[in-house]
Amino acid sequence: MNEKISLVFFGSGPVAAESLRLLTNTFNIEAVVTKPTTEQEMSSACAYAPIFTVKNKMELDSLIENTEFNSQLAVLIDFGIIVNQKVIDYFPLGIINSHFSLLPELRGADPISFAILEGKDKTGVSLMLLVEAMDEGPILTFGEEVIEKTDTTPTLTGKLIKLSYSLLDHTIPKYLKGEIVPADQNYISEQFSRYVSYTRKLAKNDGVIDWNKTAEQINNEVRAFSGWPKSRTNLNGIDCVIIEVEPIKESFGNPGTIKVSGKDLAIQCGNKTALNIKIIKPAGKKEMTAEAFLAGYAQRLK
Fold this sequence. Notes:
Layout: E1 6-11, H1 13-23, E2 28-34, H2 39-45, E3 51-53, H3 57-66, E4 73-77, H4 85-90, E5 95-99, H5 111-117, E6 122-129, E7 139-146, H6 153-176, H7 185-192, H8 215-224, E8 231-235, E9 238-248, E10 258-261, E11 264-268, E12 274-282, E13 288-289, H9 290-297
Helix pairs in contact: 1-2, 1-6, 5-8
């Protein structure tokens, strides 16, 4: 049996933890570097590896200066702390960053949500060699993932975690043998007609629904914000989270107008479009169908 390749893993949060758990199937994780707030989560994902915690860039620099790692390579997924060149150079073969988009598209903090927000029909995972500039490193490989009309940020995230692991599993051994030549992102852009774009961290206020937007735009937001910050609105004094919708071409009033027809609940959006509400969650209640919601709240919507 071949000896497992040794890696140091940098990551924080649930995406990193699930990625780490999968990596333990194939690789020997020499150490895990994470934030103090996610130490327990990472320890559960990889019980055998020592866990090092850092709060910021300065603490990371100090850790690397005062700790001896034997791994030639590190992997970084959703770390959330800036990594400077000195840390990158510590590893003879660098640090591979698994970024959940088809770079150079959707660089930045939240590529999965923004792929849905922008109505893309596909996204993917790019393995790049980390550089100090944000998500600008040379690409080792990438894989594509179709975005289904029913995908939400949580469901798409799950697919991309599995794709990321598959790419790392196949690519790292080849990279260590010198069989892969990293490609500049400008070359990738020219070859695949993918152009530089950026994402940002979502804010809580992003979840407040603006009914002046088209039904398709709001539908994308509902799917993209389903994990956080969730799509929130107030229907005649009833605070709600909108969970699932269906865009329709219908005009029955100004944006925000509520239409109750039997067991169906629709809300007017911009550009003569509307949304059928499928699943809704009133404040303090469980998720329910529009039919169940109307059974309890129809009179308040009039």
